[in-house]
Amino acid sequence: MNHNAPESGPEWAEARSRVRVYLQALQVMSPAQQERVLALVLQRAARQQEESPGADPTALAMKEVRTLSEQWFDLLLVQHERVAVTGLVSLLAIDAREKWPEAFLAQEIPADFFHALRECDPRAVPGLRVASMVPQPFDSPLDEAIMLPLEGLSKVRLPFVAKVAAFVLSGLSLWPGNRLR
Amino acid sequence: MLSGFFTDVALASDRRWAFFILNAFGWAFGAVLMAARISANGWTIAGVGLFLLFLLLQAQIVYGFTLAVTGWWLLRTGGDIVRVNRTLPPDAVPSVLPAVAIVIPIFNEDVDRVFRGVRVMYESLQATGRGATFDFFILSDSSDLNVWIAEEKAWFDVCKRVGGFGHIFYRKRRLTLHHKSGNIADFCRRWGTKYRHLIVLDADSIMTGAVFVRLVSLMERHPQVGIIQTYSRPVLGETLFQRINQFATQAYGPLFVAGANFWQLDNSSFYGHNAIIRIKPFMEFCAMPELPPSGRLGTRILSHDTVEAALIRRAGYEVWADYDLEGSYEEGPPHLLASLQRDRRWCRGNMQHVWFLFSRGLTIPSRVNILIGMMAYASSPLWLLFLIFSPILFLGKAGGTDSAFLFVCSMFLLFVPKLLAVQRLVAALPPEKTASTRKILASTLTETLYSMLLAPILMLFYTEFVWSSFFGASAGWGQQKRSDEEGPSWRDCVAVHWFHTLVAIAAVALVAWKLPRMLPWLSLVLIGPILAIPFTRVSASSRLGRLGRSHGWFLVPEEIKPPPELQTLPEPFAATEAASVLAADFGEDFGLAQAVMDPRINALHLSLLRERPQVSLHNHEHLAGLRHRLLRDGPAALTPREKKILFWDADSMLDLHQSLWGSPQTAWHQSWQAGFRKYVASLSPPGTQPAERGQPLAVATG
Fold first, then answer.
1. Which of B284, B399, B509, B565 is the 20 to 30 A CA-CA neighbour of B195?
2. Spatial contact of B234 and B145, defined as CB atoms under 8 Å apart
3. What is the pLDDT of residues B287-307, one digit of tens each?
4. Is A27 close to B470, i.e. CB distance below 8 A?
């Protein structure tokens, strides 16, 4: 295969358009930069296909985007776990699209971009300093001995007719005619 | 114990006795009148029951009246000399402020509003020049995946906009134990020891930077103070319901809080938000115990604030109300149905406090605060019983003059606080502002009529809530539907109120038939439930709210001279374009679709999830199966729990993202295909051809 001329055909066309969309989704909006990254990605994907004939070009191209990103962020950031994720969030945090529109995946890194990326710390929470917080004892004389039987009574389910009868009887017992003396 | 700035134990004792005697006098006066009225017909079982009910209810009315009169008198004479805010010169700030955490527990809230508030408060704090030691924590318990994704994005956007990374944090709890109090306790266990003070806000709270600094300065000045509660003024009301409530709270509220401070002093109430807490004693003494494990009140404490205030007071720390501090705000519910939903939760929480009422070691004022909180709801069934039995008792009996006098006395107790509040508002106006005086009087009169309609409606609902708290009966209604800006629909209003309306109509018919003489009196109570449906619908109107505002009705000071924080709060903030693009194809799952499809949202979500510990082969296979089904069969094929499992698993979310982008569209469910096409279209600059719309693009050759 000629690495300067990636395969044509519908599968490679789909791979190319998918990578382009992905770059747009990553806010790589400069056409020149898109073309540069596209060429690099497709070239690497084509090389991969030589090793795995029959592999889907879209899958290979998208895998190369990830690999390229990881390798690129690995050079810039100290972190090693999920470096592409951290790098991408940092890019968004420093507003790289506006300030350094051509920097993403570039060979030559602007110094101010490098420093901004390194200093960026978009952590959602600070480091832990774990301590205990133990619930206070309940310490009430109105404890289970009194409340629970009362609440247990509340669970008794009476039929509707019984409830109405109880209500009517209660009302009759309080009727004004029932004098105390 | 008065070991802080206010050390005059004798004065405190005198104040509390004086307040108690004033209450007792009013209470006894009413009791004598009622006893005379009942005696006129002879004492019966019903009469004794009615008398006891009257004593309980009279105590509540007299307490409110005494608070208002005391507060009015204090405000009229230059303010209470014993105020926590008075202990420090206005501009006194320590040279070094300690680390302070401002926490905002949220649960499926309006994300845009929450983070607009964070932005406004953060910027206000930075403007004071003393913001460096303050950190914001948004503590999310949200269960809705769409809300969760929106929160993450909004957190990121607000940090980016104000440069808040490292000072504005976002924490999502996996296990949402013990509701809000558990959320705050979780914060304390993780980061509490990094900070000296904790400022707790609600999702709709706003506090100015100056208030934050002032509260911290006061806490630094008084190490024995455990909690300072600000008086948060309701603002930004749009609907008629909100505007009338905020007018009433701002007009009458100052009298009541000043009166409460007169006797509560270092044992004030705590409302759970817009307050500062000293973290160390809070962690040591205020962790919420679980309630006993059976019974309908539940084991989780729903309303923690009053209990926390009582516990920290029991530990010897003071609780003060800083009621004259300007710059602490909140927003109220937009309509009656939303307010009732909140009340149902609060009612159950307050009823749970019966467990604490007799806890050992609590101060008497703490017990009174707990009791007052319970009576706020428990008085409703008592009023209902009173209203049912008093006509029966006085059926065909003489004694009309006594009844009328009793009624007049009760009205005096209820309406004098309003008159005093109006006097205060009018007295504060310049003499030439006669138009303003007319508007204040008109607003007050309207609010009074509104309250007369609302009170019996609330009484019936609160009775149901109290009943359901103890006996588990359902008192609810379905999920509210909101019709754009006009609040609940007629259908919602009918569904909620129809029963009360029918009962009230039947009661009118019964009274007209059997007790026609009582009809004028009882109609004052029954008219509210009869009109409840239109009342709720009309009071939820934003149009009427705006109309009232444009005519100068129900105005509050913050509308006449708005502080900068409230002026900038309504500015829209969170961008939701991707969510709206995906909403059509994914319905309720657009948050999940966003997190899978959009590489920025996916990366942000992943960055906020913890690394997954080693999972078993079984779990690994289970997760792989869920991922496969999600892409092949669409999000609707998974249960909410399954989607949540994937959402919490970083490896799965990464794998889903990579699988979606790295596989042909034919392998996806049609919802993914349609959503992807729209997503792609939304990425392309206007006027350009989207890259992926079916037709193959030319491949450049080198």
1. B565
2. no
3. 988 777 655 666 678 889 999
4. no
